[in-house]
Amino acid sequence: MNKLKDSKIIILGGGGIGCGIAYSLCQAGTKDVLLLEKNNTLATETTSQGAGLVGQLRNDLNRVALAKWSVKIFTGLEKKAVKKPAWMQVGSLRIALTENKAHEFSILKSTAKEAGVNVNWITNKEANKKWPLFDFSSAKGVLWCDTDGYLSPPKLAESYANESMKLGAKFETGILVEEIMSSNGKVTGVRTNKGTICCDILINAAGAHAWHIAKMAGLNLPVFPVRHEYFISSAIENVNPNLPTMRIPEASLYLRASNNSLLLGGWEPDCVYTDPKNFKNGEKPPMIKDDLNVMKWFKDQLKVICPKNKIIQNSKVYKGWPTFVPDGRFIIGPTKKLQGFIMAGGCNAHGISGSAGIGKHVVDSIYSEEKSEYLKSLSPDRFLSDEKSNWEQEIEKSQMIYKNYYN
Ligand SMILES: Cc1cc2nc3c(=O)[nH]c(=O)nc-3n(C[C@H](O)[C@H](O)[C@H](O)COP(=O)(O)OP(=O)(O)OC[C@H]3O[C@@H](n4cnc5c(N)ncnc54)[C@H](O)[C@@H]3O)c2cc1C
Fold first, then answer.
1. What atom of ligand 1 comes closest to residue 349's alpha carbon?
2. Which CATH number fits the domain 9-49+153-223+326-394, given the four candidates 3.50.50.60, 3.90.660.10, 3.40.50.620, 3.40.190.10?
């Protein structure tokens, strides 16, 4: 097999986003697609560490629609794909601890309703029936969304990849993209560790390396890897995989069952970022050590609904470098600076739940004649005005997005 066959479209990066884009392109009828991944296996970087929560409640109608589209695709893959994403549509609980937060929830609820996502208030007693381990008596409001759930991020990537290959897409691993080739302001291909490959369109789905790849295209995009972690506990009595996912914004926490254990994560107040300029294309971002103080903080935060949380013992910590951007929104679509270069990054730690919706928007950005206002608003060009941007300020703003994730 000729590993370096030219292709109309090259997707750079074989994580959840790149694989989701391949699947969306194939579904839309484009088969001349080649995905390149530097590692020998797909989905071994950020995607391998994802908690897999899929939530549709967002404060923007278009963003809810994007998540809703993902849910539709996950449901279809779980039903029909040979390799399944392990999608568990168990529903979600969202807990408000103050009247103010409950008021914010009512806005989320009406936005979701407008997008056709069913969300209801339930009583604290009903919440307790859904998650008997926890005490919801201090909650000032509980929202229930029955179509939310969770899945396995690496299995989702595998499912996308397998279905795409059946439809004609090619996937090549062990290929590091080292340079973008262009002529007359237009992408013509990539130079890799195994030779050159021509293409008309190059999609940057390089996760924590999105900055490096954008830089090769001459764009200095503020895409910052920020450390994110959670742990899975030892087995706990009466915990089972059918329990709903949960978010407690005022405690900065999210959780779900992981078999008979609890997966508990959140948004640590002292967030740790890494400047992508400090590591090279092809190199891994800095290694992350398990931060047990942060795990303890998560457990302490959980006391609001679980005073006897001594039953929760860490078993394994998962961690990675999802990327954050200064306005907390995806970066999707082409740039005026280099024709044929398309961004699919800045996932702000919801790239898995967003993956199918991101794929759909990438397809629209290539083929749709009338681009939606929402899609235009996600353009990388919003960060590329001629005024000199202040890198340090962009880092600070991205950190604030992480810290205030649930606000
Ligand atoms: C602890 C944690 C919990 C999370 N929880 C959730 C959650 O509950 N729900 C959710 O939706 N999201 C969650 N996320 C975020 C989610 O995991 C990410 O948004 C998503 O995995 C990003 O996928 P990606 O494909 O962009 O990046 P990656 O999975 O990192 O994939 C990028 C790929 O590009 C490849 N690559 C890079 N440079 C090159 C090159 N030069 N040549 C070839 N290949 C290259 C890399 O090897 C890599 O495989 C979580 C993340 C973490 C770390």
1. 15
2. 3.50.50.60
